[in-house]
Amino acid sequence: MRLLIMLTLLLSSQLLATENATTCKGCHPTIYTEFQNSFHKKSSIKEDKVHSAMWNLHPAKAKGNYKKCAECHTPNNTVHEGITCVSCHSITSIENHSTANKNIYESKPKTLYSAEKGSEDKKVIYQEKSSWLGMIKETTGSPYHNIDYTNKGYYTGKMCMGCHSHKQNSHDFDVCRTEIEGAKSDESNCITCHMPQIQGSSTSIKKTKTHAFHSFAGVRNAPQMLSKHINLAFKQSTNGFELTVHNDTPHALLSHPLRVVELKTVLKRDGKKEELKIHTFVRTIGHNGKPSMPWLANQVIKDTMIKANEKRMVAFDTVLKSGDELEVILGYRIINSVSAKKLGLEKEKELVEFTPLKRAYFSVE
User: Fold this and answer.
1) What is the pLDDT of residues 191-228, one digit of tens each?
2) H or E element at residue 52
3) Which CATH number, 3.40.50.150, 3.90.1570.10, 3.90.76.10, 2.60.40.10, labels domain 223-363?
4) Spatial contact of 232 and 245, defined as CB atoms under 8 Å apart
5) Most exposed: 92, 133, 159, 334, by fewest CB within 10 Å?
6) Per residue in 112-156, pLDDT tens?
7) What phi and psi values does residue 55 have, to the nearest 5 degrees?
8) 240-247 and 311-316: which strand pairing?
């Protein structure tokens, strides 16, 4: 028994000292496996090709000053290990600042935070209870950490706003900004969209029917999970037709300035296919009227990105006839062609190729 207690204490200290997700694997195998594919786990310059390429060009690299990037990309203070389980689950609150928000972390040992419906007022502390002269033993909680379910930020998504709210560069210019409205509701927020409940137990200690998806749905991983928040509609007119893209989210369809959204339309008529004009939606930043890297930007050059909760109508002058069919595909490229070339990533297919997000088919009567 003494040896078991010593091992438990050792593993507990390792969990909070090294912030290594491997320690979490024993009790959270499903979540651990999902996390390995996430871009939280791959947020460092070692695993994220985009972040690495940006860092290689950034003027701070010559000074060896990775500190500002590290606050979100590698909060455990190394340039090699990305965001870990403890990185997110030990955030107590968010400090709001004009340049970028700041995560405030728990200083108490073995204290982590999470959300669980029905447990909003609970704090679970590991306990062992014995009865019948020690013959029967019952335990509650985890031997590795205590869990606090009372932090409101883990239910509304506010705890995401330390890193995902906004980022200003040295010119006091918003490189990116996510509307805070997405982190106020208990029912629909950052977590419910990007970490939806899926089948499988969250832990092997306490069986649950579902758990929050820990691969984090986004353009870099599991984008199909986000497609339900996009709707495509069709309306025929005398001089052509209209397509409407409804962005049913509380933020711009894509907020990162390197990305581009494309609307592709294919007309099928008499057994033949014709690709119609591709419509693009971007937010291009730069300086002196030209696109630039984010740290140099001081103005928006072009902004056609579909905004929060917007229904964007796109008109086509192609006159349709009975029997025509339309295939409509809304998708994106993680890096636009100009930025890809500047970053030396133009040959990275997964970054520059078109990725479908939503498809719809319409028939003309």
Assistant:
1) 999 999 999 999 998 889 999 999 999 999 999 999 99
2) helix 49-57
3) 2.60.40.10
4) yes
5) 133
6) 999 999 999 999 998 777 666 566 667 778 889 999 999 999 999
7) -65, -35
8) antiparallel
